[in-house]
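Morning. Coffee machine broken again, so started the prediction first thing and wrote up yesterday's gels while waiting. Chain of 199 residues, entered below exactly as on the submission form.
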Amino acid sequence: MGFIVGFLINAPVGPIGILCIRRSFTEGRTVGFISGLGVATVDAIYGLVAGFGLSFISNFLTHQQVWIRLFGGFLLLGIGIKILRTRSAKGVAPPKVSGLLRAYVSTFFVTLTNPITFLSIAAIFAGLGNTKMYGTPAPIIALVLGIFIGSTLWWFLVSYSIHFFRPKKSDLELRWVNGISGALITGFALVILLSLFIC
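Came back before lunch.
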């Protein structure tokens, strides 16, 4: 069950999905996959919070949504603007450890500041129950592990599938990818920030 949840919860393409796809396309499958791994890690963390009924953390995430979304919106905006200013080059250089770490950390924090991710996982666990219902943590741990594996597999398939199309693209087309993905991510960030003032 957890495997299916982890796989499907990442299927809708939002700003984080666009970011991971863009990195897979322009920077290579390894960078794209490591970016997705940051998303999978947050999925697992939120699964643990929801599954074990850690109310002090869930209450904080719920009551501090405005500040969390504000931080996440500006973080996403910075990433979008940076992509828009990026000039792609032909070929993909082997990723360095520091580059992989930045890829992981950036998607980790962007996903962490997305309340929808937590609310979606919390809703799933509300239907399945938590440790109070099962009386033992084993089923919850198994479910969370399944979510992590399913999410990881999704990003593995996405990043490695895109890799097969990447060599066929010209430098001009890569610039278009940067431009479109940067514009979409920036647009998502502006919507998030504007919604804080409208709602």
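Residues 29 and 159 are 5 Å apart (CA to CA). Going to sketch it on the whiteboard this afternoon.
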